[in-house]
């Protein structure tokens, strides 16, 4: 015979692991080629000059320089570019 009564199940108790998304380097900061600038789901930010986009929409620097964020176009798209010296 059990000495402890069976506990009922719960519908809670689940959570997903953090994905570490967001802007990793800001405007005016110096970057080297390969540095991750933004981790995102979808194209919240678009790749500008000297910036590449990975398979998961991660933006990274393709050249050494200084980061510049700008809003362009009639749809107000946000672009990230790296200005080389």
Task: Summarize the model shown.
The chain is built from no helices and eight strands. It is an all-beta fold and 85 residues long. It has a single domain (22-83), classed as OB fold (Dihydrolipoamide Acetyltransferase, E2P).
How is this structure best described in words?
The chain has a single domain (22-83), classed as Beta Barrel (OB fold (Dihydrolipoamide Acetyltransferase, E2P)). The strands form 2 sheets. Strands 1-3-6-5 form a 4-stranded antiparallel sheet, with no helix packed on it. The protein has a 4-stranded mixed sheet with strand order 2-7-8-4, with no helix packed on it. It has strands at 22-23, 30-31, 36-39, 46-47, 51-53, 59-61, 65-72, 77-83. It is built from no helices and 8 strands. A hairpin with a 5-residue loop joins β5 (51-53) and β6 (59-61). The mean pLDDT is 95. It starts with 21 loop residues before the first strand and ends with a strand. The chain is mainly beta and 85 residues long.
């Amino acid at each position: 015979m059990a000495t402890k009564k069976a506990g009922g199940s719960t519908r809670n108790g689940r959570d997903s692991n953090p994905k570490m998304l967001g802007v990793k380097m800001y405007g005016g900061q110096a970057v080297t080629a390969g540095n991750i600038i933004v981790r995102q789901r979808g194209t919240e930010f678009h790749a500008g000059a000297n910036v590449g986009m990975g398979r998961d929409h991660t933006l990274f620097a393709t050249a050494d320089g200084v980061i510049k964020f700008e809003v362009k176009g009639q749809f107000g798209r946000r672009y990230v570019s790296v200005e080389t010296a």
